[in-house]
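thread from #wetlab-drylab

HS: before we spend reagent money on co-crystallization trials with nicotinamide-adenine-dinucleotide, can we at least see a predicted complex? here's what I'd submit
DV: go for it
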Amino acid sequence: MPAPFSPSLTGTSLEGHVVMVTGAASGIGRECTQWLSERGAHVALMDRDESALAALRDKVAVSGGDVLPAPADVTDQAAVVAAVDDMVRRWGGVHGLLNCAGITGTTGIRSHEVELQDFENVMRVNLHGAFVVGSAVIPTMLQQGYGRVVHIASISGKEGNPGMAAYSTSKAALIGLVKVQGKEYAEDGITVNAISPAVVQTPMVAQLPPQQVDYMTSRIPMRRCCTLFEVAEMAGWILSPAASFTTGFTFDLSGGRATY
Ligand SMILES: NC(=O)c1ccc[n+]([C@@H]2O[C@H](COP(=O)([O-])OP(=O)(O)OC[C@H]3O[C@@H](n4cnc5c(N)ncnc54)[C@H](O)[C@@H]3O)[C@@H](O)[C@H]2O)c1
């Protein structure tokens, strides 16, 4: 079993780092997986879409990347813990978690029209899932005295997008969890942060009602969407040892929409 501290824990290099990416099969998680593996990280790929994970594994392997598919639902605590155990057995530790798994639920309707079950479903994946995956990696990070946890929240969690009650609420709660955990592990070498993108063109955005996307995009002062590469670059830096004095924080990635 490789030693957990073999990679450099200074600077921006992620060479040899062990990272779990959730929501790895699509959009932001998929892009970040490729970005991380091109930079020498070992990446465990968690998603509930098993066939897309297998395709991504094959694609990354062609360019020499070292990835481990971990098909699981982020709300299934036993499955998530087993997947983390697998990656620790294989690579000797876990340096980073990038939690991208998320759903929007029904959008484009006002709060009183949202079905309770839909609301609960979104909260379960976006909030409970974040709690489950974070809780699964943190014990190993505590043993190592090192860890980087990054959750993809959303600008809607800071501002509240009308027509997205469940989604915005789940992301606001996620930002709250990050604030708590940032403080809880501040003396343990573990940082816990979030990123709040505005609009990134992914399959998630493609399935939203056009008027919902128009609203979100019209609020971006830069008058364009965020690129997948811009998300990966920011996530990669926060996952690196260099990002050592920021925790409990939500990084803006909104083209100027949020300046706080
Ligand atoms: N795309 C945007 O504009 C945008 C903006 C702000 C925040 N975000 C957030 O970024 C993250 C990634 O979004 P995306 O746009 O890449 O979406 P996406 O739909 O392209 O990818 C999400 C992935 O998460 C997986 N997933 C969903 N529920 C899961 C579960 N219970 N267990 C395991 N995997 C699950 C899906 O299978 C999918 O592969 C999400 O949390 C989303 O809320 C996206």
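DV: The pocket of nicotinamide-adenine-dinucleotide is lined by residues 22-23, 25-29, 47-49, 73-75, 100-103, 125, 129, 152, 154, 197, 199-200, 202-205 (CB under 6 Å).
HS: ok that's useful, forwarding to the group
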